[in-house]
Amino acid sequence: MRIREEVGSDLRVLLIEVDGFNNRLCCLSEETRAKYPAVMAKRRGRAFSSTQAIVTYRGDGQFMALSFVFDSSDVENMDALVQKAARRTDKKIFGPQDGVTTCRTAFARASDVPCGSDPLRIIHVAQERLRLS
Questions:
Q1: What are phi and psi of 5, to 5 degrees?
Q2: Which phi and psi (to 5°) does residue 27 adopt?
Q3: Confidence (pLDDT) at 8
Q4: Consecutive H or E run containing 126
Q5: Strands (DSSP E) along the chain, which ranges?
Q6: Under 8 Å between Cβ of 92 and 107
């Protein structure tokens, strides 16, 4: 599978990394620890519902949202949606007295890689941007 011209710059990836993810999990029971990423992905899916994004957990506190509708120029709004989803997840999992989980985000789109590239290359671009942020 390769990125073709008809995809153009519409395909966008948003990577989301939960700061201190493993530290957050260590205080949870095994059952709750297994639920935390699922609840976080579900909350993020709801937050991005207007963009028809597919949200998945990649492991090690990193989530990915894939959409053809993301407006990557509206980074502040996307960050606000990510943080809101994190707060709601924290309230559900940890309760109201817990501190706030912070997240970092990075965008990449199909136009950031050469036409004909492997689609995974878009994810690698976003990962590199997240690493540098």
A1: -60, -35
A2: -90, 5
A3: 52
A4: helix 120-132
A5: 12-18, 54-59, 62-67, 103-109
A6: no
The number of C-alpha atoms within 13 Å of 46 and in the hemisphere containing its C-beta is 11
Distance separating alpha carbons of residues 54 and 48, to the nearest angstrom: 9
**Does 93 score more than 60 pLDDT?**
yes
**Bridge partners of 109?**
12
Neighbours of 2 (CB within 10 A): 10
Which residue, chain included where needed, has tokens 């963009």?
A: 51
Instruction: Supply φ then ψ for residue 91, to 5 degrees.
Output: -60, -40
H/E element, 34: helix 30-47
Look up the pTM and report it.
Answer: 0.83
Task: Determine the straight-line distance between the first and last CA of the chain, rounded to whole angstroms.
Answer: 30
